[in-house]
Write a structure and sequence with these properties.
heterodimer, A: 208 residues, Rossmann fold, B: 84 residues, Ubiquitin-like (UB roll), globular
Chain lengths: 208, 84
């Protein structure tokens, strides 16, 4: 086993780990149920810089699972999330892009990130983003998600190293639909997996 | 030539049957014999994979449908589903 699965840092090592996270830069594409929750977890974990992108505004229906509040309905998600993250930690550095991400802008916006989190909704966009990141951001680990909807077992949500630089969170099959809506609890589990895999990658532990 | 084919999630039933020589023990990967120069798109057609978005990697990097495969390549196809 090339990497320890349960490193237990000594106090001085803990400071070094926090410093490493503090000097890290993580991109998050999509600020919905996955991305908005990944963002606050990474902020609380001490990641120094977040590059956030979404083209959408906060909708009242988002409040059941996304990290926004009723008085933010109608605001751009990047602006609303900036306010919410600043209330957690004023030191966090944020680079926000109110934009739809595709192959035309992923390289320029997310160049230089240490880890990229794919947190968009549509299957087509997920495939497009992973492909474009593989081509334009070689060597950057991508933490993606697929299969997070419905009320299936929480324990079916896992993190796996899928292929190349891609780590995949989810049960792989539970697609969102009228019969399988998104529940805050299961989406948050997946967001937690994505955030924690990101932390592990930043600390040098790529094993899922 | 021979490649290794890995299919994930709801694509795994489309894997060709395991041959006696397949000792990988993997439930989602198989060796696959192909004519030289076969493209990724031709493999997808040959397997009759269902339509829908796919993440397609060859040897750990994204590859388009017109990418020509070489002996020993590892082709991996993952079908993402919506929800985020």
């Amino acid at each position: 086993m090339p990497y320890p699965t349960h490193p237990v840092p000594a106090p001085d090592e803990y400071a070094a780990l926090r410093a490493r996270l503090g000097s890290s830069r993580v991109g998050v594409i999509g600020l919905g149920g996955l991305g908005s929750n990944v963002a606050w977890m990474l902020a609380r974990a001490g990641v120094g810089t977040l590059v956030l992108a979404d083209h959408d505004v906060v909708d009242a229906s988002n409040l059941e699972r996304q990290f926004y509040f009723a008085d933010q309905v109608g605001r751009e998600k990047t602006a609303a999330l900036t306010d919410n993250l600043r209330r957690i930690t004023a030191e966090l550095r944020l680079e926000c892009f109110q934009a739809h991400i595709d192959q035309s802008n992923i390289g320029s916006i997310f160049g230089g990130v240490d880890v990229l989190v794919e947190a968009v909704d549509s299957a087509r966009d997920k495939a497009l983003i992973v492909a474009a990141a593989s081509e334009q951001l070689p060597g950057v680990p991508i933490v993606a998600a697929s299969g997070i909807a419905g009320y299936g077992s929480p324990n079916d949500i896992i993190t796996r190293h899928l292929m190349g630089d891609v780590w995949m969170v989810g049960d792989l099959v539970s697609e969102v639909s009228a019969e399988h809506p998104l529940f805050a609890s299961r989406v948050a589990i997946a967001a937690g997996h994505q955030a924690h895999m990101t932390v592990r990658l930043l600390l040098g532990y790529p094993q899922a | 030539m021979q490649i290794e084919l890995a299919l994930f999630a709801h694509l795994t039933p489309y894997l060709p049957p395991a041959g006696a020589e397949d000792e990988s023990g993997s439930s989602h990967a198989r060796p696959m014999d192909l004519p030289d120069g076969t493209t990724v798109g031709q493999v997808i057609t040959r397997l009759d994979l269902p339509a829908g978005p796919r993440i397609v990697f060859v040897n750990g990097r994204h590859a388009p449908d017109d990418h020509s495969l070489a002996n020993g390549d590892r082709l991996a196809i993952f079908p993402p589903v919506a929800g985020g």
